[in-house]
Amino acid sequence: MAEEKGRVGSSFEDYLREQGTLEETTAAAVKRVIAWQLKEAMTTEQLSKNQMAKKMNTSRSQLDRVLDPSNDRIQLATLIGAAEALGRQLRIELV
User: Fold this and answer.
1) Dist. CA 73–CA 93, nearest whole Å
2) How many angstroms separate the first and last alpha carbons of the chain?
3) Interval 2-43: pLDDT, tens
4) Dihedral over alpha carbons 46, 50, 53, 57 (to 10 degrees)
5) Considering the domain boundaries, does residue 91 fall inside one?
6) Residue 21 DSSP one-character state
7) Domain that holds residue 67
8) Is 89 helix (H, G, I), strand (E, B) or coil?
9) Is 90 within the bounds of a domain?
10) Which residues contact 2 (CB under 8 A, 6 or more apart)?
11) Cα distances (Å, whole numbers) of residue 24 to 17, 27, 73, 88
12) Does 66 reside within a domain?
């Protein structure tokens, strides 16, 4: 007799929602991905942190906060500026 495969219980998203941490967890995950993408783009463009900060018209310490995957308190305008400094666009979607 073959076992039927399917979902057992609720999803992880449902669990996070029940715990009241879905939004916080989602924001942290999004920030980690953006920080990783920015670092990868800087590597591709062969930009040092000092060069990147200069292109963004900001300080190296501010750039370090942008690139810190655990810092999810970065303003949207700062992320847009980082993307533009790399010749990229920041795209945010509602799904």
Assistant:
1) 19
2) 40
3) 555 655 557 988 898 899 998 888 888 899 999 999 999 999
4) -120
5) no
6) -
7) 15-85
8) coil
9) no
10) none
11) 10, 5, 11, 26
12) yes
